[in-house]
């Protein structure tokens, strides 16, 4: 068994991983099995540098607030602001504190400096403005496309009307709504009217796009549409926060990944003429098979952003999962996928999942991790993964 396993693995290198992908790939999802581990971010940076220098990639998007990421992108693309500011305000969920994320922005800025604008790398976030304590107020996302449109079109609403419907931001960001849906304002009459306005704003952006892009720029229009898309997604999510049925948490997971998939779709379309995009997030947000987890003792399942975008892109979407063997005292059992891969002689390896599945002569059991923040790979679904990056120890 060990000999055959070694035949389907190579030492980790960008070229070894991309050799397993379809040449048609436009979006490569690189997943991580848990957050907060620098080794996975460092591996991502190494892969992205290879993709840029040898495979024609010109953008990266990560599991971070799509609106905050505009600040980080302005730094790497145009040198606007300082690196410290980009790290403080260009990321969500505390990701700006990660040294590897800082190195990513620094390297992208250095790469871009001598190059013309059309060759420069872009940085995106593809998560919604969803804080750990709950969703953000829809005010910034809603007022940005309004202000963009009102400069060029006659709109049926005033800014005062929007402010009145929105009310204080504290109504939307009340952390108590995370566990108590009755405190959410997501299904009030004002919220319902705001959802209609957000939908109308996006329709106006689309129907007047030839005039608007000529009067401003394609980039200005894209940012306005990003805000309008985010406003609609946020208001939909706030409505989900007000759901008092047992299906609430599962619905919120679906809504979040739907927002992610919408953002990935928009990024791929924007980058279509420039090159492919690398997307980095948790495996659960990028995998093709149905995602599962337990929250407060309740089993949840949903289709990930990767599964959704994969149905649109076909073989233009590829998924590379990352996992690991030992973490301190957490050592995988030999009968698990991670235990089997731990027999490889490489500290970091690229594994061909299709060939791996063909070599297996026994059924592997899913790993039960010691750390609840880590999600192991399901050995029954490795045929839906294009490549596995395995770290023996973290």
Automatic annotation (TrEMBL):
InterPro entries (UniProt xref): Emycin_Estase (IPR007815), Hydrolase/PRTase-associated (IPR052036), UCP036794_erythomycin (IPR014622)
Biological process according to GO: response to antibiotic
Pfam families per the UniProt record, alphabetical: Erythro_esteras
Lineage top rank: taxon: Bacteria
Gene3D superfamilies: EreA-like, domain 2 (3.30.1870.10)
Protein name: Erythromycin esterase
């Amino acid at each position: 068994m060990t000999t055959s396993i070694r035949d389907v693995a190579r030492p980790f290198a960008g070229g070894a991983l991309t050799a397993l992908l379809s040449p048609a790939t436009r979006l490569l999802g690189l997943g991580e099995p848990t957050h907060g581990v620098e080794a996975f971010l460092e591996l991502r940076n190494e892969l992205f540098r290879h993709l840029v220098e040898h495979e024609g990639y010109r953008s990266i998007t990560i599991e971070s607030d799509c609106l905050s990421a505009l600040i980080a992108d302005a730094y790497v693309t145009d040198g606007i602001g300082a690196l410290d500011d980009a790290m403080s305000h260009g990321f969500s969920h505390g990701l700006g504190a990660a040294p590897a994320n800082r190195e990513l922005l620094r390297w992208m800025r250095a790469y871009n400096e001598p190059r013309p604008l059309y060759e420069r790398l872009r940085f995106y976030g593809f998560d919604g403005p969803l804080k750990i304590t709950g969703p953000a107020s829809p005010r910034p996302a809603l007022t940005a496309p309004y202000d963009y449109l009102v400069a060029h079109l006659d709109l049926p609403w005033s800014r005062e009307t929007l402010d009145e419907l929105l009310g204080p931001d504290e109504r939307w960001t009340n952390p108590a709504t995370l566990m108590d849906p009755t405190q959410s304002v997501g299904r009030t009459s004002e919220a319902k009217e705001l959802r209609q306005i957000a939908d109308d704003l996006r329709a106006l952006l689309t129907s007047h796009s030839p005039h608007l892009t000529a009067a401003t720029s394609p980039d200005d229009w894209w940012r306005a549409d990003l805000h309008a898309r985010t406003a609609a997604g946020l208001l939909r999510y706030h409505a989900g926060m007000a759901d008092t049925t047992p299906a609430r948490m599962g619905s919120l997971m679906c809504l979040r990944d739907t927002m992610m998939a919408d953002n990935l779709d928009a990024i791929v379309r924007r980058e279509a003429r420039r090159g492919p995009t690398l997307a980095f997030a948790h495996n659960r947000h990028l995998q093709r098979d149905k995602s599962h987890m337990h929250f407060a003792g309740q089993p949840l399942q949903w289709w990930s952003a990767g599964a959704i975008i994969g149905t649109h892109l076909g073989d233009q979407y590829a998924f590379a999962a990352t996992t690991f063997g030992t973490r301190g005292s957490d050592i995988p059992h030999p009968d698990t996928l991670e235990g089997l891969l731990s027999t490889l002689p490489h500290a970091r390896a690229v594994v061909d999942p299709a060939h791996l599945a063909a070599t297996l002569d026994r059924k592997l059991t899913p790993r039960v991790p010691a750390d609840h923040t880590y999600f192991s790979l399901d050995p029954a679904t490795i045929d839906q993964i294009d490549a596995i990056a395995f770290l023996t120890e973290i």
